[in-house]
Each structure stands twice: as structure tokens, then as C-alpha cells.
Amino acid sequence: MDNIAPTLNQPEETKLWQGHSSQWIHLWFYVLCFIVAIGIVVAAVFTGGLAAIGLIIPAVAAAIRWWVTKTTSYELTTQRLRRSTGILTRTFDDLELFRVKDYSIEQPLFLRMVGLGNLHLVTSDASTPNVSIKAVPDIMALLELVRTAVQRERDRKRVRELDVDGGASELL
Fold it and tell me: What's the mean pLDDT when you consider all of the chain?
């Protein structure tokens, strides 16, 4: 049983997009770490170098933030959006595309200046009702890719969303 065979003529799933968030979303955190490091260096002058040990704190904080962002990745396929996170323990979360109810783009001024944007998805998935892909390039093209893939997957599964009582919705 080394090889798990595909079941019941499922269509092949293909990768449409893969990426991860840009480090630009943490610019202000990195600037704060730099300012704290400068303060520690200044304090080290007055403490005979003893305060220099404190440089470990902003360096480790910045390194962890960088590493967490670098190890969070997204993969959009024809059937799902997969997010993997974690440094020591990896967590994989799949969102079936037919469950996506709405999508929106947010481009704050700073991200727009560096050509990035955030994609927010509202879903009917119980474990992840909101999914955000933050600080990725060419966000409009990604939105169109997601929108097209969602519609194709709904057509393939013959699923339609029905609004009930103006607020709740069901997938049929």
C-alpha cells in the first residue's frame, strides 16, 4: 500500500499559483527593532558594553518574524487553496474553492507603493470562515485567478450558493 491510487475518476488537480507574503508587511516592526538596537548600542556606551547583550532581543525578534513569514506559503490549485504555516511544526490548511462566498482586495498606501496587495476571502468553511493572503504582488491577477477557479469548481461540483433570510447562506 505504498501508493495511494486516485479514487473514482476524480479530475486531476493542477497548480495555478504559488507564493508567500512579502516581508514588506513587517517594515515597521523591523524599523522598531532597529531603533531598539540603536538604543541598546547607546546604552552600551554608558554601561561599559554590558548593555550590548540586549542586542540579542531585537535581533531574535526580527529573525523570528522574518522566518514565520518566509515559512508561510500559499498554493492555489484548480480545487483548493492550501496554506502551510509553521517553523518547527508545519500546519496545512485546505480551503475547498467551492466554499468561497466573497473576495475583496485591500491595498493600503504603503503596499500599493511597493506593488503589493491583500486578498481577503469570506468562506462557508467552518474552520476558516475568513482567509487573507497578505502582501503579494500582482493582486488583481490573483483575484481574477481565484474568481475563475471558484466558478469552475462550483460548476464542476454543481454547487450554488443560496442566501437565506438575507444574512445566512447555504451551499446547494
Answer: 90
> pTM for this structure?
0.81
Residues 6+ apart with CB under 8 A from 101: 122, 123, 124, 161, 169
Residue 5 confidence (pLDDT):
54
Q: Cβ contacts of residue 104 below 8 Å, gap of 6+?
A: 119, 120
**Contact partners, residue 62, CB within 8 Å, separation at least 6:** 29, 30, 33
| CA distance linking residue 121 with residue 23, whole number of Å | 21
170-to-57, 68, 78, 167 alpha-carbon distances in Å: 49, 35, 22, 10
